[in-house]
Design brief:
Layout: E1 2-5, E2 14-17, E3 25-36, E4 39-47, H1 59-63, H2 67-77, E5 78-79, H3 84-88, H4 92-106, H5 109-117
Antiparallel strand pairs: 1-2, 1-4, 3-4, 4-5
Length: 118
């Protein structure tokens, strides 16, 4: 995750990078960064959801990348946490990139290999 924070006009930017070292997290670079006050979010780490984080959701809707399902799940599995307001204001390309990572986590290795082989 890369975030740039400016505390006051003219202040130096601080940059923090966290690499996703295992197969349970992936970093998505946003085409259009999210601005929250003085913070600009340029990338988001998406973590593989656990069963409890999928409560109340339809796996079929997540696999179809339905916006409502992604709006519920993404705040539970993103760093920095994306709020519903952030997700509502994402560019479609960024939402598709984040949703694609979610779908990749839901597929088995055999399904991924089959999908990539086509």
């Amino acid at each position: 995750m890369t975030t740039k924070t400016t505390s006051a006009p003219g202040a130096a930017e601080a940059s923090t990078t966290q690499a996703a070292t295992d197969g349970n997290a992936r970093t998505v670079t946003l085409e259009n960064p999210i601005k929250r006050g003085d913070t600009v979010i340029t990338s988001v780490t998406v973590r593989k959801p656990r069963a409890g984080e999928l409560r109340g959701l339809s796996l079929a809707e997540l696999l179809q990348m339905k916006v409502d399902a992604l709006q519920t799940l993404l705040p539970r599995i993103t760093t920095p946490m994306l709020h519903r307001h952030d997700i509502d204001n994402l560019e479609p390309a960024d939402l598709v990139n984040l949703g694609s990572e979610v779908v990749n986590f839901l597929l088995t290795k055999a399904q991924m290999a089959e999908f990539q082989g086509e």
